[in-house]
Write a structure and sequence with these properties.
- The complex is a heterodimer of chains A (290) and B (311).
- With 290 residues, chain A is an all-alpha fold.
- Helices cover 72% and strands 2% of the residues of chain A.
- In chain A, a hairpin with a 2-residue loop joins strand 1 and strand 2.
- Chain A is globular, with a radius of gyration of 19 Å.
- Chain A starts with a helix and ends in a 14-residue tail after the last helix.
- Helix content of chain B is 76%, strand content 3%.
- In chain B, the strands form two sheets. In chain B, strands 1-4 form a two-stranded antiparallel sheet. In chain B, strands 2-3 form a two-stranded antiparallel sheet.
- Classes of the chains: A mainly alpha (290), B mainly alpha (311).
- Chains A and B meet through helix 4, helix 9 and helix 11 of A and helix 5, helix 11 and helix 13 of B.
């Protein structure tokens, strides 16, 4: 039982990060139909910028803000220079563009930063809590709370602000949104900025536990993508649930079966889900008109 | 086969035959071999992506199966080279046929992520099952031997891989002009229209997927044999992306474009070695650039420009 609790705790912690990555995917996908494979690079930037800023003597909160700001900037530049000029391109073309962008950002990061693994100190110490015989790191609480607050803030932004509603409208129907006066170009730009910020936040929160380096982005992006797909592409609630489920499934399979195929769990789940429920857990079946 | 395609095949054969005259060192034969092998995969991938209109981000997985067959076959089962190639092909075709059936029902991003997952799973098995595959360090591959005849050295591999590529292209050109090829193009344009004309859409997609997987497997076997060593990165995600990029770069739906796309992307790292640390940055930038500015691929862009200039 304590073991099971332990797997649950670590699963939720990792899952929260997948959820944030998946959420970032979803925001961009909804606004522009682009699957952004460079999403993991935002997470990397969050961790790396925070580490190098704190190493240079910047206090942690300011370093975190710097990290988020730089990811937002990268998100905007990515949109302006790579996505906007390719409007109307096919799915494959856009996928290659964002993969090219992720290779590019990784290449820059390895020059600007370095190729080492880095850790930032936990926000409130490393003394673990004991709950039902399992240990819980204080940093895990930060991760979970940070994810919960992000999700809540995002929901408020989308439902209660005029700009948020413009994003929802664009997601629902781009042309109709344009007709009622929504500037859909800014909406897409903001969605890239927003998902940069969310990705960076995930990176800042998780780096004290999992460490970071210039190349952590690829696997995170793939798993976040799997999580988004699991919940049904384009559904924010589905993205969060998918992320948490994926994290738990990974840790449980690592603990109960074997850790050898821990990283494979995401892809096995995705194949099974797609075979059984081709629209994900929460996706609606699309009706195709001919 | 239309005359223009026969001519294309002749020109390509001539180019391959004449190119070595310009080679300053044996190293260039190795680059040539690399290009021919990559071209073979992309020719197959083009049948799937360019003609049937289905994406695959997992073809490096099939390449990996073909490659590892050349190491595992002789080392663990004592199979001769030729049988190892066939065993690799058999495993690949079986995998593609069985997994392709449910996967190819998916469309767009879902198909992309499913094939991506399949490719990653294959590469994970290859790097995790160390007692079979040697793990992340890979395995060495014995030389190709058939009836006492051995293929060794860069020069011999240059000619062997060129011959296999030309046969592969010839088969692909014939396939494209056959009823199967027309069915594939039909379902690319509209699956509904194709189905209402009596084309078994699911079956033809599966045929295209399996054929392209077979090309990848054969190319993987040749790559393993000519390198003499194989590691799981050959089956990895980035290799799959590289293959798809070659296919799009050359121009989807153009068999000869496949060779151009593969040639450019294979030659690129050789040209860029002087950049050292900046290599990744430049490769990423080039990938984005060609996708933004040469969306239909190089060969179609050039031919359409030539045509518009002609009176």
């Amino acid at each position: 039982m304590p073991e099971l609790m332990q797997f649950m705790f670590s699963g939720l912690t990792v899952g929260a990060v997948y959820a944030l990555v998946a959420l970032g995917f979803t925001i961009i996908y909804n606004a522009s139909d682009v699957v952004n494979f460079a999403q993991g690079e935002f997470v990397m930037l969050g961790g790396m910028v925070t580490f190098f800023a704190t190493a240079a003597g910047v206090p942690l909160p300011i370093a975190a803000v710097l990290a988020i700001a730089s990811a937002v900037a990268v998100g905007l530049v990515l949109y302006k220079l790579a996505i906007e000029p390719a409007r109307g391109a096919s799915v494959v073309t856009l996928i290659i563009i964002t993969i090219g962008a992720s290779i590019f950002i990784r290449g820059v990061a390895q020059i600007v930063f370095d190729k080492q693994f880095h850790r930032i100190p936990a926000f409130s110490g490393d003394a673990p809590f004991k709950i039902l015989g399992a240990t819980l790191l204080p940093q895990s609480l930060w991760v979970l709370a940070g994810t919960a607050i992000t999700v809540a803030a995002l929901w408020l932004f989308l439902q209660r602000t005029i700009f948020g509603k413009a994003i929802v409208a664009t997601s629902a129907n781009r042309l109709a949104a344009q007709l009622v006066g929504v500037d859909t170009n800014s909406v897409v730009a903001v969605s890239f900025a927003l998902s940069g910020a969310i990705g960076a936040l995930a990176g800042i929160l998780i780096t004290p536990i999992t460490l970071t380096s210039y190349d952590v982005g690829t696997l995170l992006a793939l798993k976040g993508f799997a999580a988004a797909m699991l919940g049904g592409m384009g559904n924010p609630v589905g993205a969060v649930v998918g992320g948490l489920l994926l994290g738990m499934a990974e840790q449980l399979s690592a603990g109960l079966i074997s850790s050898k195929y821990k990283d494979a769990v995401a892809f096995i789940m995705i194949l099974l889900i797609l075979f059984v429920l081709p629209n994900g857990l929460f996706g609606r079946a699309r009706v195709e008109r001919v | 086969m239309p005359a223009s395609r026969s001519l294309g095949l002749l020109v390509l054969t001539a180019l391959i035959g004449v190119a070595p005259v310009l080679f300053p060192s044996v190293f260039y034969y190795e680059i040539g071999t690399g290009i021919f092998i990559a071209s073979l995969v992309v020719v197959g991938l083009n049948i799937l992506m360019g003609y049937a209109g289905q994406v695959s981000l997992g073809h490096a997985g099939f390449f990996g199966i073909g490659a590892y067959a050349m190491a595992i076959g002789p080392a663990r089962f004592g199979l001769p080279s030729m049988l190892s190639i066939l065993a690799g092909l058999a495993v690949t075709i079986l995998t593609a046929w069985v997994v392709g059936r449910p996967i190819l029902k998916l469309k767009g991003h879902y198909l992309a992520v499913a094939t991506l997952g399949l490719g990653i799973l294959i590469s994970m098995v290859l790097s995790n099952e160390a007692q079979w595959t040697g793990g992340p360090d890979g395995m060495s591959v014995p030389k190709f031997e058939l009836l006492g005849f051995t293929i060794r050295g860069s020069r011999m591999w240059y000619w062997t891989s060129a011959a296999v590529l030309l046969i592969g292209i010839w088969l692909a050109l014939n396939l494209v002009d056959s009823p199967t090829g027309r069915a594939l193009r039909g379902l690319h344009d509209s699956e509904v229209a194709a189905a209402s004309n009596g084309i078994d859409v699911a079956r033809y997609k599966l045929v295209a997927f399996t054929i392209s997987a077979g090309y990848a497997s054969l190319a993987g076997s040749m790559a393993a044999l000519s390198d003499g060593h194989i590691t799981p990165t050959a089956a990895g995600f980035l290799h799959s992306v590289e293959l798809v990029t070659m296919s799009v770069l050359g121009g989807m739906g153009s068999i000869f474009g496949a060779v151009i796309g593969a040639g450019l992307l294979k030659a690129l790292p050789q040209v860029l070695t002087f950049l050292h640390d900046y290599e990744q940055v430049v490769i990423g930038a080039i990938m984005m650039g060609i996708m933004i500015f040469l969306r239909e691929g190089i060969l179609p862009a050039v031919t359409s420009r030539l045509r518009s200039r002609a009176p």
